[in-house]
Design goal:
Layout: H1 2-26, H2 31-39, H3 50-78, H4 86-110, H5 118-148
Helix pairs in contact: 1-3, 1-5, 2-3, 3-5, 4-5
């Protein structure tokens, strides 16, 4: 179980942060600023922490990925039939994580308006489905599926 969580966190966390870095650069923004913003969710003072705040942001990002991976692994352990359809499971889980993060967590923490802008919906749905949910589901199916055999 823990290996599945660790590998899913590493893969999805890396894919997602690389996508976030690409978007940040495409919009002409600075990567350390984006990472400090991520850290400012649980640590509001991180915005003014320079490099340490950016490193903290990377840690917060991977901690969030670990929480998402743990949630999926627990779901798959509770409903083992989900292992049989990792693409569908990952798609659904990506949508669920998108709504939790972008319609609940972010608006509550940063008081951002709802609904999000269309560009944000498109990029965030892509990231949560293709870079988070689907890879996590395939990793979970691989490691937890071996356990059930």
């Amino acid at each position: 179980m823990f290996r599945s969580i660790a590998i899913a966190t590493a893969i999805s966390g890396t894919l997602d942060i690389l996508f976030a870095i690409g978007l940040t650069l495409a919009f002409g923004r600075e990567v350390p600023t984006m990472l400090r913003f991520v850290a400012s969710g649980p640590f509001p003072g991180a915005i003014g922490m320079g490099t340490a705040g950016a490193v903290l942001g990377l840690g917060v990002h991977y901690a969030l990925m670990a929480i998402m991976a743990t949630g999926l692994v627990l779901l798959v352990r509770w409903r083992p039939e989900l292992i049989q359809t990792p693409l569908r499971t990952g798609l659904a889980y990506g949508i669920i994580t998108y709504f939790i993060m972008n319609w609940l967590v972010v608006p509550l923490r940063f008081h951002s308006p709802l609904p999000p802008k269309a560009t944000s919906v498109a990029t965030q749905l892509f990231a949560h489905i293709a870079l988070v949910g689907i890879p996590m589901a395939f990793v979970s199916a691989h490691y937890l599926g071996q356990r059930s055999k």
